[in-house]
Specification:
The chain is an alpha+beta fold and about 240 residues long. The chain contains 10 helices and 5 strands, in the order αααααααββαβαββα. It has 2 domains: about 90 residues, Orthogonal Bundle (DNA polymerase, domain 1); about 130 residues, Cytidine Deaminase, domain 2. About 10% of the residues have low confidence.
């Protein structure tokens, strides 16, 4: 079994953390410290890199479910739980620091098939997703997947950065929807500026994704712009 002690002392993440501080470590090194041990055929640094490659960023990793994490070779249920616990500590730290609004249990946006909730209005969706994206400093596009009874079966961040109709392709959106076996989806993205008015790219991206959804039989039933002060529903305001 490969451990951090198999690395030369100068390259061991723990020793580097003690010498230079946690802020000097890469994401790969931080993950290696959290996970601790690799497997017989997978060194821990390789496993950490695979996690980052698979989920794209620390945000993608944070939003991965335990079921998604265990698909990575070398990640068992115990390691998946370790990672989920770390991100939950981060969330609670933000709440305690006053930088994140604590939601009641009925408002939690990370929803599983066994605890699905009924979507009824844009306000319901806003309560589900606001904690997930309103505090980001970059725009994040999130897909809320719903079943045929309008119950939320999953939420996934599929893009980070300003929405651009030339960069965002419907395949990323519907790859998530198909994996979730969604019957319909709702798009949500944040405006860090606080501006609720949709941009031309917002409108074009929505049009492109809606057209693809109509072809695939997975309709886009709404798109919400979310800020710390409120939200705008494309469906309610006539943009969709």
């Amino acid at each position: 079994m490969s451990t951090l002690h198999d690395l030369p002392p100068s390259e061991r993440p723990r020793e580097r953390l003690l010498k230079h501080g946690a802020e000097a470590l890469s994401l790969q090194e931080l993950l290696a410290i959290i996970l601790g041990r690799g497997t017989k055929n997978e060194p821990i640094m390789n496993i950490s890199q695979k996690l980052l490659s698979q989920f794209g960023s620390v945000i993608g990793l944070e939003n991965a479910s335990a079921e998604d994490l265990v698909l990575i070779k070398g990640i068992g249920l115990a390691k998946a739980c370790q990672l989920k616990a770390c991100f939950e500590l981060k969330r609670r730290s933000l709440i305690a620091d006053g930088n994140l609004y604590p939601l009641k249990s009925k408002d939690i946006g990370e929803i599983s098939n066994t605890n699905a909730q009924k979507h009824t209005t844009p306000d319901d969706i806003y309560r589900q997703v606001r904690q997930k994206i309103v505090n980001f400093h970059k725009e994040h596009l999130l897909v809320v997947s719903l079943d045929s009874r309008s119950k939320i079966i999953g939420t996934d961040i599929v893009s980070v950065g300003t929405l651009n109709s030339s960069l965002i392709h419907p395949r990323e959106v519907f790859e998530t929807a198909i994996r979730r076996h969604a019957a319909q989806i709702i798009l949500c993205h944040n405006h860090p500026s606080g501006e609720l008015k949709p941009s031309n790219d917002d409108l074009q991206v929505t049009k492109n994704i809606k057209s693809a959804g109509d072809i695939l039989g997975i309709p886009v039933i709404d798109h919400l712009i979310v800020t710390t002060k409120g939200f705008l529903s494309f469906k309610t305001t006539g943009f969709l």
